[in-house]
């Protein structure tokens, strides 16, 4: 569980995050949504410890980041998995080498143990027998699976995903969303996903934090988002005709 209390982050005179508080529960897919420039990436980077807020606190499973010593911070970083936008695989490494990389950096496993673990996580993302392929030899959806396998290889407590669906067709995007949600439940991870994708909101939005101009303008579930009258949310969600129709259907059901 991650508890965020009143965080503020500025760059020079530009105030980007203006007092955000929320809770990201363990075992849930938590989504951060909002328009371009609303501060989603800055928020995610604060959660990753890459940016330090000037004010406010972030607690990881009850421990305040700013009160952790260096060893605790190192341990925390190693308990975080990250799926970057565009997969961010190393092109010159095979799938197996990409997935093994965090273990080589941060674990003391033997080569055999690493190989077993690589095979376990590749099987979990349905990518058996892809070990020797290079990223350029596999599809975008498969690359995302490799990125997810790499993110979970160290058994993370926290999983952060930045636009995990970008560049994927809608069907593959849903498969990737479902995979992230299954893994979140199976390993009881606190997962936080930055997304623009309304399909993701509908499919896996167990908790949604809506940012507008660096402020949390709304939070709730995917069931609630289609019923809310919050104008900022409805303007964002119903910018497309499809979602206007979905809303009408929801309202007629009630
Ligand atoms: N390192 C930085 N230095 C200065 N300004 C920054 C930095 N990182 C982000 N910003 C500014 O913070 C604001 C919010 O950016 P952020 O990347 O968080 O938006 P976003 O909601 O993730 O947008 P998008 O959906 O387009 O990725 C922008 O105005 C951006 O220019």
Can you tell me about this structure?
The chain has about 250 residues and is an alpha/beta fold. The chain has two domains: about 1-80 and about 155-254, Rossmann fold; about 90-155, no CATH class. It is about 40% helix and about 25% strand. It has helices at about 40-45, 70-80, 95-105, 110-125, 140-150, 170-185, 200-205, 220-225, 230-235, 240-254; strands at about 1-10, 15-25, 30-35, 55-60, 65, 80-85, 160, 190-195, 205-210, 215-220. The strands form two sheets. Strands 6-7-8-3-9-10 form a six-stranded mixed beta sheet. α3 (about 95-105) packs parallel to α5 (about 140-150). It is globular and about 55 Å long. Bound molecules: adenosine-5'-triphosphate. Adenosine-5'-triphosphate binds near residues 16, 37, 38 and 40. Adenosine-5'-triphosphate binds next to α1. It comes from Sungkyunkwania multivorans. GO terms for molecular function: ATP binding. InterPro entries: AAA+_ATPase (IPR003593), ABC_transporter-like_ATP-bd (IPR003439), ABC_transporter-like_CS (IPR017871), P-loop_NTPase (IPR027417). This is ABC transporter ATP-binding protein.
């Amino acid at each position: 569980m991650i508890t965020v209390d009143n965080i503020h982050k500025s760059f020079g005179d530009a105030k980007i995050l203006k007092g955000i508080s929320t809770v990201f529960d363990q075992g849930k897919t938590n989504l951060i949504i909002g328009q371009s420039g609303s501060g989603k990436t800055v928020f995610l980077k604060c959660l990753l410890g890459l940016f330090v807020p000037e004010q406010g606190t972030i607690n990881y499973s009850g421990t305040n980041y700013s009160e952790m010593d260096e060893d605790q911070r190192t341990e925390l970083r190693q308990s975080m998995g990250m799926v970057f936008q565009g997969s961010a695989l190393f092109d010159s490494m095979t799938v197996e080498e990409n997935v093994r990389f965090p273990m080589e950096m941060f674990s003391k496993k033997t080569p055999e143990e690493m190989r077993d673990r690589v095979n376990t996580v590749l099987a979990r993302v349905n990518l058996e027998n892809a070990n020797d392929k290079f990223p350029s030899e596999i599809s975008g959806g498969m690359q995302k699976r490799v990125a997810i396998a790499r993110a979970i290889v160290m058994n993370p407590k926290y999983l952060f995903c930045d636009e995990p669906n970008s560049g994927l067709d809608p069907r593959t995007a849903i498969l990737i969303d479902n995979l992230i949600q299954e893994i979140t439940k199976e390993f009881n991870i606190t997962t936080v996903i930055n997304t623009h994708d309304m399909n993701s909101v509908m499919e896996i939005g167990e908790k949604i934090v809506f940012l507008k101009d660096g402020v949390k303008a709304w939070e709730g579930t995917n069931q609630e988002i289609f019923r809310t009258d919050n104008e900022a949310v409805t303007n964002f969600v119903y910018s497309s005709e499809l979602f206007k129709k979905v809303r009408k259907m929801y309202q007629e059901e009630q």
